[in-house]
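TA notes. Do not distribute before section.
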Amino acid sequence: MLDRTDPESAIAAAAAAYSNWGRWGEDDVLGTVNFIDDAKRREGAALVRRGTSFSLSQRFDMNGPQKGWRRRTNPVHTMLDTGTDAALGNQGFPHGIGGADDVVSMPLQCSTQWDGLGHIFDHGRAWNGRPAEKVVTSEGDLVTGIEHMAAPVAGRGVLLDVGRVVGGVVGGGELPDGFAITEEHLRAAIDAHGVAVGRGDIVCVRTGHLSRARRDGWGDYAGGPAPGLSFTTASWLHRTEIAAIATDTWGFEVRPNEFDDAFQPLHQVVIPNMGLLVGELWDLDALAEDCAADGVHEFWLTAGPIPVTGAVAPPSTPSR
């Protein structure tokens, strides 16, 4: 049982128990992504049968979920050249050629993204025990910048549709806000789907929170109450040796958090201590419908981040 009044002790105990510091050497920059080896990619590629493809990314849209918390806003899309400019001959090109160009200004966490290893610190320490001030400066993440993840994040994906399995017909395939997904719930989904989860897998957990936001409006989807992983799942996340985990929620873990005075305590354990790659704001609905239809919940998944040099939590456009 968690002592809701003592997050500090719970975080410290979990950090010590599930630390991967030094596991892949003192110079490591990949954390649990090291579990995705060539054999794992071949295993994932061998799952392709029908050739159906789904984007698992939300749109990068000016009408997105962000509300400005800590200066996180929705992307601003501006046209630099348009069809109007071309038709009016304002572009200065020869022989009738014209074109369109555009620019986007946005926080990197405004839509579907990965939390990189430089995103969260634990008492001033970054992944692998490095001093946070030596890792991320005003110039970006100088050590574990997300550019290192651009190539290796591809392999066997597994969908655990906890919303459908636990929420069921009564819940419409959606878990209520504040619902803490425990190891028991994850195992229930694994058993219901008849799928294994293990070393090197990229696990996608659908809660149905995005489905509800699409139907009812964004509301507090970004940063408000939400279903998500329980702090107690840290043991499962470490023991299974998965490479990464992604959810259809803003913050991956249950909100409100499970302690009286805490902010994202599971992040504090799994990112700087475990070295786990965490994905947020993924769109898993179409994938979930397809998996439910054919009963197959494992697939080839490519999910590399946009390699913004030194970024700590960049956009991704994962696809199955």
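Switch to the second chain here.
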Amino acid sequence: MRYRPFGTSGAAVSNLTLSLGQDTLAKGRGAALELMYTALECGVNSYRLETADPVVAEVLGEALSHVDRKLVSVGLTLGLGDGRSAQRDFSARGMTAAIDRALHYSGLGWIDLAALQEPAEDELPRSSLDALKAMRATGRVRLLGVAGDGAVMDAYVSTGAFDALLTPFDLNSGWPVRHRIRSAREQDMAVFAYDYFTDRRKRRRGPAAPVKKRLFGFGGGGEQHPERRGGDDAFGFLYRTQNWTAEAICLAYVLTDPSISSVIVAADEVDRLKMLAATPERDMPPGLAAQIEMARVSRAA
């Protein structure tokens, strides 16, 4: 594992931030604890609670109770309540209750980063921001962040009221996202990336064109795999690179940007987490970065 500066806080966070939510508990409490212990053994010191779910917070608190609290960073997503309902809540009372609930069940003492999840332009009242700043002044929250995509994020970045930006970032991210990241860094904001990988094999494709057969029905070649059809997918090479998975390549590519403090990953299996945790120590194969840039240009065209 490698580490990068966490904004202006003076702390350092691991290249990977493990995201924890209700899916983490799908295989039971024991499996969730094993996953978190594995993350610690791999050097991951940054964790993100997807909601203020009390059970997830309690399990994370149990896992982190074995290490010095000052050596780990814990983030909390605000605006989604406890994750058990679809109702969004950016009120001062709602977000304060979410922070108190997460702290009570986890026993962590403080939240390192409280991030608002995609607030609309008119969804965050001034009273809510004042309440968060008051909690930051008392030490219950160390840093404030904003997460999401779209032009409204530019407005939130420009306010100077936030310490971190959480943004989608992948191989095909365009100029608006890259410009937003650069603006955040100019504001001395830490930048966390998520949605770094989209499995293109799972995208639904239209019906294949009929294959013309040659004389007596032979020589048509049959239907080729979508990844082997020339020009069908500019990023098909991601699945043909030896000793690399497509997800690991996408993760390694995002980590080549020095503006990214950490990449948020979700893993529900120990083996997959170990694979992701080993990626920051690996160098991408020669020429692969250039191939990715050519694919980006081809896709844009």
